[in-house]
Amino acid sequence: MIEVVNKIDLSSGPEKIPARVLVHICCGPCSIMPLKAILGSAEVWGFFHNPNIHPYSEFKLRLDAVKKLAGFLSINVLYDEEYKPIPFIKGLKATSDGVKHPPKDVRCEFCYSTRLEETARAAKKNGFDAFSSSLLYSKYQNHEQIKGLGVDLAKKYGILFFYKDFRDFWQQGIDNSKEMGLYRQKYCGCVYSKIERYPKKYMKIPPVLK
Ligand code: SF4
Questions:
Q1: Domain-embedded: residue 107
Q2: How far, in Å, from the CA of 13 to the mean position of ligand 1?
């Protein structure tokens, strides 16, 4: 039996939830707890925007998982369904001096900032009071960097950044995703993270990255 809307009481915490929040969704499993947390106290919409995901088959699996989750939670989601990894790779190369395989700290900062900026822009354009991100749920991401970027973008776009350390709900999110039968990915998303899954002896830089 799937518990779809279990309200998480955030009212006693220091973070007051704004009335309408747009939550950037990186993938289904990581979004469950951030969406549920806000759902009990505010109007929440999701925003799927992840041009970093490689290859298209993986992008589609994650997109479909988010659609399934949106059905379970009965929430609205804005979907950016266009598959466009090349601008991400070119933008990353431009910010990392053309390095073929940019190190994780460099590429993740670029990746976070592009996805969060698009979310802030979409939130502002569509009349939301705040934006947030499922990236704040993951124990594998640079949490402080994401938080800092969110705060900076909030100032830039004149909109609130709803911050919460959703990692507190880590196990609950995993359990829920399994109960819902959501697709659970094996790597973060970009081509570099896919390559790094395998032992170094198998690593080959694809021609498009040279
Ligand atoms: S490892 Fe993940 S967060 Fe970092 S650049 Fe790749 S997809 Fe983005």
A1: yes
A2: 30
